Amino acid sequence: MQKLDPSAPPNAPHFAVQLSATRRGARLARLLTERQLDDWGVPSGEAVQVVAELAANAVLHGRVPGRDFRLALRLLPGGVLRVEVTDARGDRVPRAHAPVTEGAEGAEDGRGLVIVAAYADRWGVDAGPAPTKTVWAELSPGRGRT
Ligand SMILES: Nc1ncnc2c1ncn2[C@@H]1O[C@H](COP(=O)(O)OP(=O)(O)OP(=O)(O)O)[C@@H](O)[C@H]1O
Ligand SMILES: [Mg+2]
Fold it and tell me: Could you report the per-residue pLDDT of 53-75, keeping only the tens digit for each?
C-alpha cells in the first residue's frame, strides 16, 4: 500500500490524474494544476512551477515506456498544498537532501530540484508501491505562493 501522509485527513480537498509520460502529459499536469488551484481559490504561481519541474522529471528521468505518471494535489489543514508526482521508476530516486551540484556538462541541468527546494517548505521521495516512487513537495500558504 502507498504510504499516506498522516497529516492529510481523508476528506481533504484532493485532485488526482493519470497522465502519459510525455511532454504533452507534463504540460497537461501544469495546466490542470493551474485550473484546480483556481477552483480552490489558491494562488498558483509557484505551485505550478513546482508541478512543472516534478512532472518534467517524471517524464524525463522516471519514464518507463508505456507507463503513465500520476499527479495528485491535496489541500492540507492550514492551507498547505501538497503536490505528489508518482512515476514508474522506483529504482531511480533523486536524492532529497544532497545539494545539487553542477555537473561536468555545465550549469544547464540540475535546476529543477533547486527550484522545488526553494519554493517548498519540505519535499522528499517515498518509495513504492513497487515499481513506483512518489516525489512530493509541500508549499505553505505563507511562503510566497503568489
Ligand atoms: N523522477 C525522477 N526519477 C529519477 N531520477 C530523478 C527524478 N527526478 C530527478 N532525478 C534525478 O535527479 C537529478 C536532478 O534533477 P533536477 O530536476 O534538479 O535536474 P535535471 O532534471 O537533470 O535538469 P533540469 O531540471 O534543470 O532540466 C536528475 O538529473 C536525475 O538524475
Ligand atoms: Mg528536472
Answer: 999 999 999 999 999 999 999 99
Q: Are 84 and 72 in contact (CB under 8 A)?
A: yes
CA of residue 57 to ligand 1 center, whole Å: 5
Nearest CA to 69 among 50, 43, 51? Answer: 51
C-beta 50 within 6 A of ligand 1: no
Q: Whose grid coordinates read 503513465?
A: 68
Q: How many domains does the structure of the chain reveal?
A: 1
Q: What is the pLDDT of residues 18-56, one digit of tens each?
A: 999 999 999 999 999 999 999 999 988 999 999 999 999
Domain that includes residue 32, residue range: 14-139
57 found inside a domain: yes
* Structure confidence by residue, pLDDT tens digits, 102-127: 554 555 678 999 999 999 999 999 99
Q: What is the CATH number of the domain that holds 22?
A: 3.30.565.10
CA distance 62 to 114: 18
- Please, which residues have CB within 8 angstroms of residue 101's CB and are 6 or more apart in sequence? 110
Q: Which atom of ligand 1 is nearest to the CA of 113?
A: 18
